[in-house]
Amino acid sequence: MDLREINEYYSSRMAQIHLYQRAMKELASKELKNLYEYEKTLEQRPELEEFSHSLHNMAFRRAKDGEPIFFGKWKLSIKDLKLSVVLHKNKQYQWLLSEAYEEFEDCLERLYAYAGYMDPNFWPLSDFGNISLIELSQKTFEWFEKQASKKKDTPSSIINKFRNTDSALKTQETVNALGVNLYLAITLIEFLRHVIVHRGGIVHDKAKFKERVLNKCGLYNSGKPSAEHINFIEQFFGSGDYANTIILLEIPTHPEIPLDIHANLFDVLSGYLMAYIHIVSEFLNALHNKLLHPTTNASAD
After folding, report:
1. What's residue 52's pLDDT?
2. CB 3 within 8 Å of CB 285
3. pLDDT the model gives residue 50
4. Which of 38, 143, 190, 261 has the fewest Cβ atoms surrounding its Cβ within 10 A?
5. What angle do CA 214, 215, 220 make, to 5 degrees?
6. Hey, which residues does 237 pair with through a beta bridge?
7. What is the dihedral of CA 28, 235, 273, 212, to 10 degrees?
8. Which residue positions in the chain have pLDDT lower than 70?
């Protein structure tokens, strides 16, 4: 697998995730539209008020005799149903972001495998395992990919190897047209993914969460992190009752205009992941060209 194939595969996987997100957005919009229309109907016909609630009973079958055991009973108003649609949509976005991050991790491993396959000197000796130089010369890309998957503390160890090898890559993390610290962004997504998978998308202690994210990036600044970095993390959480909940929904950018103009937080975060992969790929492409044409590159330097 070459660099082009690695990036094409990653792009196709991310495109599929984005299609799922757009389908979820469309379904939620239709459900909310139906609920708003029904709400207007009730305002015009108050005699239908008794039908304005949705009733839900939940049960499971008892193991010894198959009899139903009821464990939940809910009576939901239209307001409750609208909130439920929005929360369900957000939950789906959370899981799609988790998938996007896992694709990011997989792609990083392939890019690291490509770096080692292209130039074995790029890898530290510990990544090769118990193998001789003669055997190494005969190994395929798939072997390097398998070894990359065994690397400890991934993806951090892989990211740090790329960062420490290429100063231009490290510079682009903070000096870029996106106006964000990309290293902070991908680290935040790593922590968000953990909370989504293991804690239902809700942090128990947001102050501690922010501290851990910034510490890993080296941006905690002895307990005095910048307001810019704190605000960057905060924008992906709700407010009020949802202050500790990861929120990835669309945010209107011009609420005064009666058009669907919004910033999609899911798109924003997944875009940071893809931008970082693109930076790494550009570095590897330059490295590959340097290996193919060492004399040309030396004279250019």
Report:
1. 60
2. yes
3. 61
4. 261
5. 65
6. 246
7. -130
8. 47-53, 252-262, 295-301
Phi, psi angles (nearest 5°) of residue 237: -125, 155
Per-residue model confidence as pLDDT tens digits over 50-94: 666 677 788 889 899 999 888 888 777 888 888 999 999 999 999
Residue 281's pLDDT is 96
Please report the pLDDT score of residue 77 as a whole number: 84
Is the peptide bond prior to 155 cis by the omega test (within 30 degrees of 0)? yes
**CB-CB contact of 94 with 201 (8 Å):** yes
Q: Which residue has 């999609």 as its token pair?
A: 264
Q: Identity (one letter) of the amino acid at 256?
A: E
- Tokens coding 50: 């008794």
**What token pair was written down for 176?**
């870029």
- Phi and psi at residue 223, to the nearest 5°: 85, 5
pLDDT for the residue 48: 62
The pLDDT value recorded for residue 255 is 58
| CA atoms of 182 and 169, how far apart (whole Å) | 11
Q: Which of 56, 57, 54, 58 is nearest to 82 (CA)?
A: 54
Instruction: Supply 59's token pair.
Output: 């049960």
Contact 283, 173 (CB under 8 A): no
How far apart CA 114 and CA 147 sit, in angstroms, is 11
Strand, coil or helix: 247: coil
Could you give the CA distance from residue 182 to residue 173 in angstroms, rounded to a whole number? 5
Query: Which single residue is written with the structure tokens 């008020």?
Result: 49
Instruction: Please say whether the beta carbons of 249 and 93 come within 8 A.
Output: yes
* C-alpha pair distances (Å), 139 with each of 39, 205, 285, 291: 66, 47, 21, 19
CA distance 102 to 155: 10
What residues does 263 pair with on adjacent strands? 251
pTM to 2 decimal places: 0.87
How far apart (Å, rounded) are the C-alpha atoms in residues 168 and 120?
21
